[in-house]
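Try it yourself: sequence plus zinc ion, in.
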Amino acid sequence: MESERSFSARTKEEMCRRMPQRNCCAAAELYGELLFANTFSPQEIKIVTELEKFAARLASLVFRVTGVDAKYASFGSAGKFAVTICGDEAGRVYSFFGHEEGRAPAIHLNNAIVEEEHCREAFMRGMFLSSGSVSSPEKNYHLELVTRHFNLSREVVALLLDMELQPKTTVRRSNYVIYFKDSAAIEDFLTRAGAPAAALRVMETKIEKDVRNQANRKVNCDSANILKTVDAAQRQLAAIRVLESRGALDMLSEPLRRAAQLRKENPDATLAELAEIAGASRSGFNHRLARIVALAEGGSNE
Ligand SMILES: [Zn+2]
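Structure, out:
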């Protein structure tokens, strides 16, 4: 079983495989990355990631979309990478997306950048690359995006709803979490955000799990039925032995004697099979066997 982080990492690697063809989509993806960045202000923009491919992609998108020459560098000692843009250049990138320069207002979603469906899908990819994670489907179905900005989280939820996705929200350590628990919704998200192979993996795992569950249920159900049959047959055989040992078997009525005889001759047969041999109804035959058991347990002779 692969770890949670590696399924997330592999999903992000898949998203990084191809660059957006349209310039509008390149801008929309970058916008998703920046809004969900560690820092997005007119003074500083900073995104830290463990995925070098994403750091490289981000730097190249910043240049392609805004003309600002961004670089990525290793960050800290734990194999992380950061894209950092400071000063005037941060202000240029910030105002490119229609955010007012100079002040540091609450972060809002500029809907003009995510009007077209293709741009919205690129934007989803950007958000996910910056702040998203997805659990290995072997473990559970969970995909989430995390932001510190309340208004942004609400506006993104509205956007996702408009795209016929049904996100849930929660607050975790003063972060706003937008998440999906439904495997179909996760498949949809991943497909549209540019990770169809990851989506397929979720779908296949779901099918495997469903088949496994069904097989388990059937095995459990069969064993319970077999146990019930065996248990009943064992009780009936024991009852017949008791009656025999008392010399009471010959004193039973003809139908009961015949029922006892058939059970002795067919210890493994089911009730339905015995009833058929006897030419009796299932419930009628069951009643005879129950009577035999009652007589043996009650100790009385008939
Ligand atoms: Zn587009």
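One thing you can check immediately is this: The two ends are 64 Å apart (CA to CA).
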